[in-house]
Amino acid sequence: MAHANWLSIRETGSVWGMRVLLFLSTAFGRWPARMVLKPVALYYAVFYRTARRASKQYLAYSGIRPTFSHVFTHVLHFAECSLDRLFFLRGNFKPFVIRTVGSLHIEKLAATKRGAILLGAHLGSFEAMRAVGEATQANINVVGYFGNARAINRLLDRGSGGKVGTRLLEVTPNSLEFIFKAKDLLEQGEMLGILGDRVMSNQVTEVTFFGKKAAFPSGPWVLAASLKCPVYLTFGLYFAPNTYELHCEPFAEVVTLPRGTREAALRSYVQDFATRLEYYARLAPYNWFNFFPFWSDEDAG
Predict the structure, then answer these.
(1) Which residues pair with 204 in a beta bridge?
(2) Beta carbons within 8 Å of 150's beta carbon, 6+ residues apart
């Protein structure tokens, strides 16, 4: 597999950058802070070879000429979504135009106190979806591995007035305690937000993504099957300069992985997810933020 061990990526530079963005956005607002991002994005596009190669590979597979200009735009979109995360965490939607498609699904889940998995990806901003959901009384807990981002999360928690830490559920591999916590949250009518396009263990399923073989994590589907809860797809697409289009659609009322055909069933779910992810990525092609080798072949230049 060609997926990088992103779990070991150091966070020191990111923490410093987040501190600067937090100060600028608090003191001067979004537009001045956004202007600072252009030289930062240019620096990363020039000097971070792994990210540049990964961006060129993705852009080429998605049908965009992998020129430096397009790589820069790709990195800049990531930087802008990172900045906007600070506003969403504080519940400040004033700088944005927000459109919703399928939000009635989340509203219905919240109104009926029915727990569900909201499956997203590193596509645009999941934080935008979570913030808008919580504004409509939907409690969304982000599930993930935060070992390489503890300092960032502490910083964001302070910047958001303490709202971050109460909505993070850290994955603990092979832990019954984690399963029980997730089950309790679902039974309380809360939702689990999971990003289904980043590998956190050796449990992967290889499917077709943009016409090429790629490994996706199996964990979200195994978790959904064990918790016997519905799964909805959620994507928060960003369109510069300040528009977010939030999508939510039903995916599976229940995930079943029969013992005799488990691998085939798992591959079917993962392939369907990859197909929908590709569809939404084509709607906003600069929004997919996996800046490391993702596909099984590595022919990016």
Answers:
(1) 217
(2) 11
CB count in 10 Å sphere of residue 217? 21
What distance, in Å, lies between the first and last C-alpha atoms of the chain?
19
Q: Is the CB of residue 26 less than 8 Å from the CB of residue 159?
A: yes
Identity (one letter) of the amino acid at 132?
V
Separation between Cα atoms, residue 140 and residue 167, nearest integer Å: 7
Pairing of strands 231-239, 116-120: parallel
Q: Give pTM, 2 decimals.
A: 0.89
Write the DSSP assignment of the chain as a string of letters: -----GGG---HHHHHHHHHHHHHHHHH-HHHHHHHHHHHHHHHHHH-HHHHHHHHHHHHHTTS---HHHHHHHHHHHHHHHHHHHHHHTT--TT-EEEEESHHHHHHHHHTT--EEEEE-SBB-HHHHHHHHHHTT--EEEEE--TT-HHHHHHHHHHTTS-SGGGEEE--TT-HHHHHHHHHHHHTT-EEEEETTS--SS-EEEEEETTEEEEEESHHHHHHHHHT--EEEEEEEEETTTEEEEEEEEEESS----STTHHHHHHHHHHHHHHHHHHHHHHSTT-B---S--BSS----
**pLDDT in 10s for each residue of the chain, 301 residues:** 444 443 344 444 465 666 777 777 777 889 988 998 999 899 999 999 999 999 999 999 999 999 999 999 999 999 999 889 888 888 889 999 999 999 999 999 999 999 999 999 999 999 898 888 877 778 889 887 655 445 555 555 555 555 554 477 877 666 678 889 999 999 999 999 999 998 767 789 999 999 999 999 999 999 999 999 999 999 999 999 999 999 999 999 999 999 999 999 999 999 999 999 999 999 999 999 999 889 976 554 4
